[in-house]
Amino acid sequence: MRVAIFSSKNYDHHSIEKENEHYGHDLVFLNERLTKETAEKAKGAEAVCIFVNDEADAEVLEILAGLGIKLVALRCAGYNNVDLDVAKKLNIKVVRVPAYSPYSVAEYAVGMLLTLNRQISRGLKRVRENNFSLEGLIGHDVHKKTVGIIGVGHIGSVFAHIMTHGFGANVIAYKPHPDPELAKKVGFRFTSLDEVIETSDIISLHCPLTHENHHMINEETLARAKKGFYLINTSRGGLVDTKAVIKSLKAKHLGGYAADVYEEEGPLFFENHADDIIDDDILERLIAFPNVIFTGHQAFLTKEALSNIAHSILQDISDAEAGKEIPDALV
Ligand code: NAI
User: Fold this and answer.
1) Are residues 37 and 148 in the same domain?
2) 156 pocket-lining for ligand 1 (C-beta < 6 Å)
3) Which atom of ligand 1 lies nearest, measured to the CA of 209?
4) What is the CATH number of the domain that holds 65?
5) How many angstroms does the Cα of residue 124 sit away from the middle of ligand 1?
6) What's the total number of domains in the chain?
7) Phi-psi group of 144: left, alpha or beta (phi > 0 → left; psi -120 to 50 → alpha; rest → beta)
8) For 56-68, what is each residue's pLDDT tens digit?
9) How far, in Å, are 15, 46, 70, 325 from residue 321 at the CA level?
10) What is the extent of the structural domain holding 212?
11) For the D-isomer specific 2-hydroxyacid dehydrogenase catalytic domain, which residue ranges apply (predicted)?
12) What is the whole-number distance in angstroms between the Cα of residue 301 and the centre of ligand 1?
């Protein structure tokens, strides 16, 4: 099948081409993000492969349907950027990669927590300048702290396991339909969202972004959280009201924020803007705090994850071409 691969970078190219030796699909790699302005580039393809910041809203899906696109294959787990109702109406199948490597993101969240809490990046910068002073670098033990997890699926349960067994933290978690067996197996306790918000020393977000939970971390929830708590977001930027985070950091209520995602990341992330003037005062204010660490949606980026993603999307494309059922299809 001819597949237009939007937002593709060298690492996608390499991993997908290598895996395609077993599949033989006709792949067209495009640097551009999928938007209403670029959708026409899919002309001649029967499927598009997209990533987290590509826009598959109603308008874009209409254009794709007009071009004869029958399949949208997301090379990620989250699918908040696709209008599934419209895709269904247009008879476009949508598939994603539900679990390519939960370890990649869970381990990265742990890395972000330690970098923030133990001020590792500040320490590294000091030593580069022959500054061996430890003043201002005091952190906390994670051991015996209460770690609250919001969303306990593939990634959240690996993160819970590391926090419980690796750090000896007291892990509490919330998800809409708790799974007592999972909690027992991993060694954490399910509780209400309120208890997670109000009693955690560290809160890590591992749920998808939906219409219902947009800005679930907002001025009101931040005010109810423990003074000095750390917030870790490797999930989706839209879960967090960034302006409220800035306000809470300025009030010295939120103790620190570690984020790999940002609610307005679409036009910025995955590109080098080192020579540009960034026209986003909220982001620039946020990253200026000494107790904020920020990366550009890199939590998924391991060799294992890239290889599993390539295998999963190419297999789904082959199955769709052969008219087979795809168990994880969203539409
Ligand atoms: P999953 O589908 O396995 O688990 C999601 C969990 O969130 C489930 O337990 C579900 O019940 C729960 N949940 C759903 N709605 C909720 C709500 N309103 N409040 C609390 N919990 C809720 O997904 P997985 O694979 O664990 O991924 C989680 C998220 O991580 C993805 O949706 C994606 O947004 C993000 N992600 C980020 C990456 C990165 O590179 N930064 C890479 C991969 C995923």
Assistant:
1) no
2) yes
3) 34
4) 3.40.50.720
5) 32
6) 2
7) left
8) 999 999 999 999 9
9) 21, 10, 10, 10
10) 102-294
11) 3-329
12) 17
* 231 lies in the same domain as 154: yes
Distance from residue 234's CA to the centre of ligand 1 (Å): 10
Determine whether 40 is an active site residue: no
For the Cβ of 105 lying below 6 angstroms from any atom of ligand 1, the answer is yes
| Residues 222 and 283 grouped into a single domain | yes
Same domain, 132 and 89: no
Whether 121 and 185 map to the same domain: the answer is: yes
Strand partners of residue 49: 5, 73
pLDDT for 327 equals 84
Question: Alpha-carbon distance 35 to 310, whole Å?
Answer: 22
For the chain, helix (H) and strand (E) counts, in that order, are 12, 12
- Residue 270's pLDDT is what? 95
Atom 25 of ligand 1, nearest CA residue: 154
pTM over 0.90: yes
Residue matched to tokens 């870790």:
232
Q: Rounded CA gap, 2 and 315, in Å?
A: 14
Stretches in the chain below the pLDDT threshold 70: none
Q: Which one is catalytic: 75, 96, 206, 297?
A: 297
**Ligand 1 pocket, residue 234 CB under 6 Å:** yes
Q: Is the CB of 266 under 6 A from ligand 1?
A: no
Say how many Å lie between the CA of residue 151 and the centre of ligand 1.
Answer: 6
pLDDT at 328: 79
